[in-house]
Every structure is written in C-alpha cells, then in structure tokens.
Design brief:
The protein is of the alpha/beta class. It has a single domain, classed as Rossmann fold, CATH 3.40.50.1010. The chain contains seven helices and five strands. α1 crosses α3 and α3 packs antiparallel against α4.
Length: 143
C-alpha cells in the first residue's frame, strides 16, 4: 500500500462545489483508491484547522452556504486519516522552510512526508515546482 501525506488543497476538492475547481477527477480517483485500501493518507494535525479555514473562506466568498460548510465539515470529520502531531516535526519543518524558502505550513507537510517516507500529494503547483525535484512531493495535476 502506498502512503501519501495529504495536503488540505487536495481534500478541499472533495468538500467544495466542483464549479471552478481544477483536477476534481484526479482528487476523486485518489479518494476512491483510499476507500479501496490501495493507498493510505496521513496528515499533520495542522490539516484539520486548514480544512475549517478553507470552508470558512468558501462561505465568505459565497461558494458555500453556512449549512453546506457545516455538512462538509461533518464529512471531513468522518475521514479516518492517520493524524500526526506537528510538534514531532517542528525542527525538520523549520529546516525545510528555511532551506527551500517555503512557508512553515507547507514545510510541516513536507517534513511529515520525509519523516514517514511518504509522498506529499498537493494541488499547489507552485509548491511542487519549488521543491518537487528535491523532496517527495507529487502534484495532483500529474496523478
């Protein structure tokens, strides 16, 4: 079974309206693979507040109603992804962030991928372009 660190940018595609979202089919394929037990997802604890923030922003932008955001949050809360405490990877995250000039948030995901000998799957093409040749990260558009 292949282990992926799941970026919130990918999970957002399962929670937001498909209108205007790129790579929905690729994201849905990953979710189906996880449901079938062929791949597994792990996330830093930071993932969960990021999901809430994505939904909050979608309501503010009128992409979702508050009720729809609540339903999406319930869906997300039912995911059984292994969650790792960010505290355990703070030092390598800082080192990655400083070395590659990435945000600390992105670096937490990258450090988790390195520590778990996994691949970060992200919809953030800029992140992939910045570090994809040197760190274990895969862009959703290439799935």
């Amino acid at each position: 079974m292949t282990l992926f660190v799941l970026d919130a940018s990918v999970a957002a595609k399962w929670l937001l309206p498909a209108t205007g979202e790129l790579y929905i089919n690729e994201a849905n394929h990953l979710l189906a693979e996880e449901a079938a037990g062929r791949i597994a997802f792990t996330v830093p604890d930071l993932f969960w507040p990021e999901i809430g923030s994505i939904l909050w922003k979608a309501v503010r932008a009128r992409r979702l109603t508050a009720e729809e955001a609540g339903e999406s949050l319930t869906t997300a809360r039912n995911w059984q992804f292994q969650t790792i405490a960010s505290r355990e990877i703070l030092q390598p995250a800082l080192e990655i962030g400083l070395l590659y000039t990435r945000s600390f948030y992105d670096s937490v995901y990258l450090a988790l991928a390195v520590s778990q000998q996994a691949t970060l799957i992200t919809a953030d093409e800029r992140l992939f372009n910045a570090v994809g040749a040197r760190l274990p990260v895969k862009w959703l558009g290439a799935v």
